[in-house]
């Protein structure tokens, strides 16, 4: 590299720069005359059905900028010459598609054919590893849902339904739709649902992305919606697993009550200038989380002892009989029983409606594009299906909705210069409530209001309000009518028991300027998003009503009512007052985080060198607070539920500059080396920061063990990444890519303890701070086989090593609680999977191939595997767990755990899975193309172990009953014995209820599922 080029790159990286996610690519190439081999000077190239086009220069070269990602037909013309059009040319966002034409004289007759373009196996314009899938790729896979497709890509791990990229934590992924952020800033997840049929393409950039993108340290996932077409098109598809009745096992599986309907429409509104695309989906599933679920039945007449409420129950001595208000589906009317059905988890449904669409006004040189993604869903939250089997009428209902709106205005100033103005609005709402009282939370614990619904309360003077739980052999079962939402647990410590509501929105925009100056594509831009976040969560509402009964004055006086809510219900409220009413001011007003960015990016495309150099400036204002003196928090009048606001101050905004540099060395059209270096920075997930004053007061008072402490004054997390790769086209139809990466991550969030001053009202308390770090490295391999002789295939494999001082924010809480040293030496992270990969093979007969039966018939088989993840073998006593939990040792409360080995020294078993899709396409003349299909997930019904018990390293045995020294005292307790053992084996070892309650997730992967479908396309 010459000295001038080195100086240029250095200067670019030092420029203080300017964000927004690009959604368009470009086409470039050269036109030559076949008879003279001269360049075609002044020839025209047109993207059919659009106003995009360009003329060739003196060397026959042309360039068309700002083409939305998609498939196009491209035509070339020159006086006295012609060439066949090229159809199905794929344009990818932020990449360059090369297309050359060879023109023949007009008097030379061309065959009456079109040239069908294929996506290049090697794209030399990419300076980092970019994984691109189009809608055709999605249609053939035997899975549904984009998250399942994300998990197939190199560098990506899907564990317990969380996405991890290249060893980063699950909150370090950025999500974009139509160029606008769809990331939930509270938890770092994706807040927008996209219908697979609405996707034009999606990209995964596992780190190494350009300066345009920010707010995500591990990687970004970009989803581009389809655009309208020049001709009217429509499709309708429906699929279901209702080949058998629910709870009836057939073909070694069950129906999970699944239906999915999708409608798409596309076409012009006014000629080729105004086009639209729309996709709508309704998905219903009676059990939204299919799992290995074999029910059981415990009747009075046959069980070792009668089903009588035992010690610790709500009405000791009560017997479960028919007619006691228990749902008829859950009892045997002869004698009373606890009956768990096979196959489906009851009351675990989901019903979702989604709409995605775009409208484009193409009035060159002005182009307007409007994109929208809307979702509403309602689901049952049955996190403890065994415990709640007798009280299904009061199980929580959860509703959420999201809307992302993006309006983009583009002005093509010249053929090589344009600017874009983007305006965005995002709104996300989420709520969990009791199905009877919904938002009327003051009625939740009101015995009079509950009596109107037939729920009998008793002993209210003793604080026992709703029909408190049964205790059968030491196991809790919610009594019919017992309040589940807003029940007795401390907010934040229960399992799906709190009433909550959330509103999160942002208004944002960006301005981007792009110009092509010779080989330089220079982009400069800036963006700004302002959020408004409101949250309200409350439990223990019976305690509030009990206080009002026993202390009437607390209900009469407004200030006393507030104090009662703060101390008895302990709500978590910001943007709402303690009663759940919206408020816009004060200490508990809404949170208004603000994020801004500027970037400067230059892409230099030479014949043998491509440089992607940029610099980015990020501004973070998380609307956070920090203590003036954390060792002495102040409280109003000594009330530990009323923190003194004057003891905190607003945290200053944070800003940083991040350089990025990518290089690509196209040795030939078939061989490309690429390298990338970059620094990345992101805000912590805001759930770690935001807490309403009642809970914040409780947390810092030090009176309780808090499994998920709050962080005050947290700084952003930083990542430095290096990447080097090599792409080689082996033949005309196959290529491979191998990419190595190394990442250094600093400032991740961990738990620490604040030791308070002598005499302070607050005791020592846990808090979150920056401190964890990680080092990850790996090798990603992809082998692509383009369709040839009916076969198409892709192999993805990742070899990685993700190590750090903590796998999540609370990994070190055991050290903090036990007063031992917080880990400062890296160990394997709990989501580390050393080996992970997939093999996808598609075999299809083409049209007019194979005869009338085999024509357009085919199969797609997907084989996935991983080597398991790391965990730590532990020992310990019973701790504070109840008899129903058997002393399970779980991550949420590590105070009773004792590690038996180095952190995460053990690994769960390997996982293997095969999915299969078989389909047949045929034509109904003048009407539809029909595609009928069946796909089977987990074809061989493999029982994959995805988690294990820490005591045993086994998913079948938790180490409780098999260890008499641990379990005998519990088993032989009053009202237990053989019945307790039988219940424990069925509810815990069989259905894993204690694992769900304490750890979350599951121990086994999903069972076999069979779905049938048909797609009509016009």
Distance between the termini: 55 Å
**What fraction strand?**
35-45%
Share of helix among residues? under 10%
How does the overall form come out from the CA principal axes?
Answer: globular
Describe the main β-sheet briefly.
Answer: 22 strands, antiparallel, barrel
- Contiguous low-pLDDT stretches (5 residues minimum) are 1-20, 331-335, 489-495
- If you average the pLDDT, what whole number results? 89
The chain-level structural class is mainly beta
**Rg over alpha carbons:** 31 Å
What is the overall number of helices? 13
Number of strands: 51
List its salient traits.
mainly beta, 22-stranded antiparallel β-barrel, 1018 residues, 10% helix, 10-stranded mixed beta sheet
Account of the 3D structure:
It is a single chain. It is built from 13 helices and 51 strands. Strand 12 and strand 13 (162-165) form a beta hairpin. Helix 5 (541-550) crosses helix 7. The protein is globular and about 100 Å long.
Give the secondary structure arrangement, pairings included.
Layout: H1 3-14, E1 24-33, E2 44-47, E3 53-55, E4 61-68, E5 70-78, E6 81-82, E7 86-91, E8 96-98, E9 101-105, E10 115-116, E11 130-134, H2 135-139, H3 146-150, E12 156-159, E13 162-165, E14 173-177, E15 180-181, E16 199-205, E17 219-225, E18 233-240, E19 258-270, E20 274-285, E21 296-299, E22 337-340, E23 350-363, E24 366-380, E25 397-414, E26 417-433, H4 447-452, E27 470-472, E28 475-477, E29 499-517, E30 520-538, H5 541-550, H6 553-556, H7 558-569, E31 572-574, E32 594-605, E33 610-621, E34 625-627, E35 648-650, E36 654-666, E37 671-682, H8 693-701, E38 717-731, E39 734-754, E40 765-788, E41 791-804, H9 813-817, E42 827-828, E43 835-844, H10 851-854, E44 857-866, E45 870-871, E46 874-875, E47 898-899, E48 906-907, E49 911-924, E50 928-937, H11 964-971, H12 978-990, H13 993-998, E51 1009-1017
Helix pairs in contact: 5-7
């Amino acid at each position: 590299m010459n000295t001038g080029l080195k100086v240029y790159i250095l200067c670019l990286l030092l420029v203080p720069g300017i964000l927004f996610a690009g959604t368009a690519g470009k086409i470039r190439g050269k036109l030559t005359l076949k008879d003279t081999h001269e360049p075609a000077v002044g020839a025209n190239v047109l993207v059919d059905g659009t106003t995009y086009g360009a003329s060739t220069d003196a060397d026959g070269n042309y360039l068309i900028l700002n083409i939305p990602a998609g498939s196009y037909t491209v035509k070339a013309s020159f006086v006295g010459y012609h060439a066949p059009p090229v159809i199905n040319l794929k344009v990818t966002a932020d990449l360059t598609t090369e297309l050359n034409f060879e023109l023949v004289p007009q008097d030379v007759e061309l065959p009456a054919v079109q040239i069908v373009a294929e996506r290049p196996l090697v794209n030399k314009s990419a300076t980092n590893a970019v994984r691109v899938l189009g809608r055709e790729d999605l249609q053939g896979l035997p899975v549904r849902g984009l998250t399942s497709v994300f998990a197939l890509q190199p560098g990506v791990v899907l564990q317990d339904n969380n996405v991890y990229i290249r060893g980063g934590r699950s909150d370090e992924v950025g999500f974009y739709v139509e160029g606008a952020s769809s990331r939930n800033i509270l938890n770092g997840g994706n807040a927008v649902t996209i219908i697979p049929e609405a996707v034009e393409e999606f990209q995964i950039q596992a780190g190494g992305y350009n300066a345009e993108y920010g707010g995500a340290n591990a990687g970004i996932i970009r989803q581009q919606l389809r655009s309208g077409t020049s001709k009217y098109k429509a499709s309708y598809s429906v699929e279901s697993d209702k080949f058998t009745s629910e709870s009836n096992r057939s073909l070694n599986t069950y129906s999970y009550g699944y239906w999915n309907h999708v409608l798409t429409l596309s076409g012009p509104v006014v000629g080729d200038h105004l086009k639209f695309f729309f996709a709508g989906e309704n998905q219903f599933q009676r059990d939204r989380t299919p799992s290995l679920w074999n029910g059981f039945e415990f009747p009075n007449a046959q069980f070792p002892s009668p089903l009588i409420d035992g010690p610790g129950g709500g009405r000791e001595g009560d017997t479960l009989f028919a007619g006691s208000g228990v749902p008829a589906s859950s009892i045997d009317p002869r004698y009373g029983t606890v009956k768990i059905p096979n196959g489906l988890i009851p009351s675990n449904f989901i019903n979702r409606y989604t709409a995605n669409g775009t409208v484009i006004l193409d009035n060159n040189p002005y182009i307007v594009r409007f994109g929208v993604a809307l979702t509403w869903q309602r689901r049952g939250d049955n996190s403890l299906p065994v415990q709640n089997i007798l009280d299904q009428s009061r199980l929580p209902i959860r509703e959420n909705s999201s809307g992302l709106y993006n309006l983009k205005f583009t002005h093509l100033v010249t053929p090589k210069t344009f600017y874009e103005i983007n305006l965005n609005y995002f709104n996300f709402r989420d709520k969990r409530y009791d199905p009877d009282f919904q938002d009327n939370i003051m009625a939740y614990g009101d015995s009079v209001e509950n009596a109107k619904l037939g729920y009998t309360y008793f002993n209210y003077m003793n604080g026992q309000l709703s029909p408190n739980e049964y205790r059968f052999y030491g196991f809790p079962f919610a009594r019919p009518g017992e309040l589940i939402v807003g029940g007795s647990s401390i907010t934040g410590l229960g399992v799906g028991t709190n009433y909550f509501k959330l509103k999160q929105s942002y208004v944002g925009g960006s301005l981007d300027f792009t110009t092509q100056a010779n080989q330089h594509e220079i982009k400069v831009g800036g963006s700004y998003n302002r959020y408004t976040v409101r949250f309200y969560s409350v439990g223990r509402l019976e305690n509030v009503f009990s206080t009002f009964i026993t202390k009437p004055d607390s209900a009469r006086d407004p200030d006393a009512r507030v104090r009662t809510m703060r101390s008895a219900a302990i709500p978590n409220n910001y943007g709402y007052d303690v009663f759940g009413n919206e408020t816009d001011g004060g200490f508990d007003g809404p949170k208004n985080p603000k994020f801004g960015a500027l970037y400067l990016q230059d892409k230099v495309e030479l014949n043998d060198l491509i440089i992607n150099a940029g610099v980015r400036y990020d501004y973070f204002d998380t609307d956070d607070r920090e203590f003036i003196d954390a060792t002495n928090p102040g409280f109003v009048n000594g009330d530990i539920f009323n923190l003194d606001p004057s003891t905190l101050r607003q945290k200053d905004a944070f800003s940083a500059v991040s350089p990025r540099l990518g290089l690509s060395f196209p040795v030939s059209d078939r061989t490309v080396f690429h390298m990338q270096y970059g620094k990345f920075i992101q805000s912590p997930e805001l759930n770690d920061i935001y807490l309403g004053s009642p809970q914040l007061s409780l947390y810092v008072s030090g009176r309780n063990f808090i499994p998920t402490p709050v962080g005050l004054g947290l700084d952003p997390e930083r990542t430095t990444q290096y990447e080097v790769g090599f792409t080689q086209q082996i033949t005309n139809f196959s290529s491979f890519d191998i990419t190595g990466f190394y990442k250094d991550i600093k400032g991740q969030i961990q738990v620490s303890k604040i030791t308070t001053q002598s005499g302070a009202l607050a005791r020592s308390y846990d808090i979150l701070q920056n401190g964890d770090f990680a080092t990850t490295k790996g090798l990603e391999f992809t082998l692509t086989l383009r369709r040839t002789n009916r076969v198409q295939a892709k192999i993805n494999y990742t070899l990685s090593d993700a190590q750090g001082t903590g796998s999540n924010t609370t990994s070190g809480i055991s050290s903090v609680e036990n007063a031992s040293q917080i880990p400062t030496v890296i160990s394997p992270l709990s989501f580390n999977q050393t080996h992970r990969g997939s093999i996808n093979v598609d075999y299809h007969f083409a049209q007019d191939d194979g005869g009338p039966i085999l024509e357009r018939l085919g199969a797609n088989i997907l084989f996935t595997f991983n080597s398991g993840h790391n965990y730590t073998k532990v020992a310990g006593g019973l701790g504070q767990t109840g008899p129903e939990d058997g002393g399970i040792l779980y991550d949420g409360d590590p105070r009773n755990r004792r590690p038996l080995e180095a952190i995460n020294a053990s690994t769960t078993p390997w996982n293997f899975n095969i999915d299969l899709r078989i389909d047949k396409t045929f034509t109904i003349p003048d009407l539809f193309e029909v595609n009928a299909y069946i796909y089977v997930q987990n074809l061989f019904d493999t029982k994959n172990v995805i988690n294990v018990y820490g005591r045993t390293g086994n998913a079948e045995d938790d180490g409780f009953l098999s260890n008499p020294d641990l379990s005998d005292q519990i088993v032989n307790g009053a009202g237990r014995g053989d019945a307790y053992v039988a219940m424990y084996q069925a509810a815990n070892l069989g259905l894993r209820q204690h694992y769900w309650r304490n750890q979350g997730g599951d121990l086994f992967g999903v069972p076999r599922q069979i779905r049938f479908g048909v797609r009509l396309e016009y």
